[in-house]
């Protein structure tokens, strides 16, 4: 029994001494903490206490402190402190190039911690002298700048000074406002205060702002004009920022040189008050170049000028003796062999398709109804003069659907008769071109919501349509198709198709050529420089094709009208931009080849503005010049060359979107 008791005591004693088989936990690591623990910012010569504390080393002997900054004077700090006692760091008198690293290391041990101190020089105002000038009535803003100082910096006016009326200085150093009242030079002082402890404030620096009157400007209306020989038009100069009732002097120049009345015409009065008109009167003969009419301010420094371009010519647009029987737009107008013009279909004033047709007689200047109307009301259709003198009307849109039907107008009877066969597809906004063999090529268009790539040929002998052997390279509508019926033998008889829209309302820059010999389309070698639809394309006398205006998408459901034009050369199949652009961006306009080889461009839409202006393209120099304005703004109208060389303009819509029954003749 005694032995057993001794053995138990021996075992238990060993257990208490050694944990009865369990090892002792490891000691906690020694850590060093600093307060403040984040990076610090001080001005030169400023001081701050930094406390180092140790954990898990009850026998520590305190901390040794050291500074490093990459060289030079880093400032001073208490050499040794007990744990929890502050060491005082004092920044040097000049800011070192690098931040100062402060190190607290346990005496006799490797444990340490560090923090950084950014030392800044005292704040100073960097902006000096005269500031950017301000203008009465115009918004002004200027940011002052400073050097040094502990961020953030706060700005203030100094020395009891003030900024000009309605300008203010905020705490970040931004001067803002819109000057009003009297102008002049205003002197004021500013200083900046930093966020150091203690805060430092710079000395006051004197600045100045000169507030001046806004520059005088001149606006002319109109900025360009066509004036017929011996006729007159008015111009108005409106001044801004001039004294009340400011005046302008008017002068006429040609190629930058003053010119006599006989060459340039006259202007009277030669001095007018802002907002009141002067009258320009054209000379009796066409000048050798365009004229500039310039308005120059009489008062104010510096003087302001504005110029208007004046084109003088013998042409004019004159209303016909009678209007059409029906107001219409998106119709067709076709010159008949008799010299009369057949006007067919379109949309009426309620945007409903019309079945009516009428004839314009140039000898009387009057319109009369045809004996018969279309079998089906149509708009967005085509009308093509056939070799036998009849007119083929194809497709379009009635009040509900696209149309595949076609009908022929007989000038002898004045009646329309349906063709024996219909087209293979309903089409609107398509093209129809008379080929050299007397057949008619119909291309593309819309079939409901489908942009068609198909094409078909109408044979007047059989009165039927057959699809071409090949389709176009792309489905397109609101494009153009131009017969190349003179020029190079390599292209003679082909049809040039260009531009138009896709079903997603983006525009094509591509073009293609239809060859009647093969019945197929091939892409042109080059694309247009600008995608376009609702444009025009005219065969010029040298065999090239002028493509002008139209519109292009510049965003989702956002479109821009085009003033540019380009010329397609069938020999190279390349497009080249014309030397000059049109005076106005235009879409849904007309372009008509005149007997002298120039192209008459009329009306159309410039964005949301319906144009009354017209201009001429000269193929010789590749430029556009203003010609006589129409009597009314028009878009979606027609322009047809008459046998006497004049051009008949009919219908369309005006600036309010109202369908027009009026017509006029360019002569």
Can you walk through the features of this model?
This protein has about 675 residues and is mainly β. The chain folds into 4 domains: about 30-120, Immunoglobulins (Immunoglobulin-like); about 125-210, Cadherins (Immunoglobulin-like), CATH 2.60.40.60; about 230-305; about 315-665, 6 Propeller (Neuraminidase), CATH 2.120.10.80. Helix content is about 5%, strand content about 40%. It contains 2 helices and 63 strands. The strands form 17 sheets. Strands 21, 23, 24, 26, 28 and 29 form a 6-stranded mixed sheet that branches. Strands 2-9-8-4-6 form a 5-stranded mixed sheet, with no helix packed on it. Strands 11, 12, 15, 18 and 19 form a 5-stranded mixed sheet that branches. A hairpin with a 4-residue loop joins strand 59 and strand 60.
């Amino acid at each position: 029994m005694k032995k057993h008791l001794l053995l138990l005591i021996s075992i238990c004693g060993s257990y208490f001494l050694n944990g009865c088989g369990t090892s002792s936990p490891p000691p906690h690591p020694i850590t060093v903490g600093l307060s403040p623990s984040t990076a610090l910012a001080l001005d030169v010569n400023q001081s701050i206490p930094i406390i180092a504390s140790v954990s898990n080393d009850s026998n520590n002997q305190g901390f040794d402190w050291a500074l490093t900054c990459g060289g030079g004077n880093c400032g001073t700090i208490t050499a040794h402190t007990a744990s929890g006692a502050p060491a005082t760091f004092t920044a040097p008198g000049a800011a070192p190039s690098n931040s100062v690293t402060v190190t607290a290391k346990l005496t006799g041990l490797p444990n340490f911690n560090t923090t950084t101190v950014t030392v800044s020089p005292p704040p100073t105002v960097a902006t000096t002298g005269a500031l950017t000038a301000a203008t009465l009535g115009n918004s002004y803003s200027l940011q002052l700048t400073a050097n040094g100082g502990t961020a953030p910096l706060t700005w203030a006016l100094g020395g009891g000074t003030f900024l000009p009326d309605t300008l203010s200085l905020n705490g970040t150093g931004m001067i803002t406002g819109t000057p009003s009242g009297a102008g002049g030079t205003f002197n004021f002082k500013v200083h900046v205060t930093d966020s150091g402890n203690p805060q430092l404030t710079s000395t006051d620096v004197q600045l100045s702002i000169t507030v001046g009157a806004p520059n005088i400007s001149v606006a002319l209306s109109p900025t360009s004009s066509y004036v017929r020989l011996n006729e007159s038009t008015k111009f108005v100069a409106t001044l801004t920022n001039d004294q009340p009732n400011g005046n302008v002097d008017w002068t006429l120049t040609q190629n930058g040189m003053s010119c006599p009345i006989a060459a340039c015409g006259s202007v009277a009065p030669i001095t007018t008050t802002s907002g009141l008109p002067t009258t320009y009167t054209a000379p009796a003969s066409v000048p050798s170049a365009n004229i500039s009419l310039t308005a120059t301010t009489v008062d104010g420094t510096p003087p302001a000028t504005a110029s208007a371009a004046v084109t003088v010519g013998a042409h004019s647009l004159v209303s016909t003796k009678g209007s059409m029987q029906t107001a219409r737009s998106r119709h067709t107008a076709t010159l008949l062999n008799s010299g009369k013009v057949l006007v067919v279909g379109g949309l009426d004033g309620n945007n409903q398709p019309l079945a009516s047709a009428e004839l314009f007689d140039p000898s009387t200047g009057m319109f009369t109804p045809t004996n018969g109307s279309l079998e089906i009301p149509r708009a967005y259709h085509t009308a093509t003069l056939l070799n036998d003198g009849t007119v083929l009307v194809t497709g379009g849109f009635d009040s509900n659907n696209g149309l595949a039907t076609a009908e022929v107008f007989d000038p002898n009877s004045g009646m329309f008769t349906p063709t024996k066969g219909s087209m293979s597809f309903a089409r609107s906004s398509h093209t129809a071109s008379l080929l050299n063999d007397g057949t008619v090529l119909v291309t593309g268009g819309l079939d409901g919501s489908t942009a068609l790539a198909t094409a078909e040929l109408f044979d007047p002998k059989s009165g039927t349509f057959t699809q071409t052997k090949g389709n176009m390279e792309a489905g397109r509508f609101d494009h153009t198709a131009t017969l190349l019926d003179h020029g190079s033998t390599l292209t003679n008889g082909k049809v040039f198709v260009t531009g138009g829209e896709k079903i997603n309302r983006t525009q094509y820059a591509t073009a293609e050529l239809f060859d009647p010999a093969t019945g197929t389309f091939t892409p042109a070698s080059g694309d247009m420089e600008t995608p376009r639809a609702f444009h025009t394309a005219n065969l010029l006398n040298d065999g090239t094709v002028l493509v002008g205006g139209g519109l292009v998408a510049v965003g989702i459901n956002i479109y821009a009208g085009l003033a540019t034009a380009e010329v397609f050369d069938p020999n190279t199949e390349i497009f080249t931009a014309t030397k000059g652009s049109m005076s106005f961006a235009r879409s849904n306009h007309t372009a008509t080849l005149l007997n002298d080889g120039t192209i008459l461009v009329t009306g159309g839409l410039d964005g949301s503005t319906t144009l009354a202006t017209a201009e001429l393209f000269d193929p010789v120099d590749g430029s556009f010049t203003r010609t006589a304005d129409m009597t009314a703004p028009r878009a979606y109208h027609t322009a047809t060359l008459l046998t006497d060389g004049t051009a008949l303009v009919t219908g369309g819509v005006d600036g309010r979107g109202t369908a027009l029954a009026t017509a006029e003749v360019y002569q």
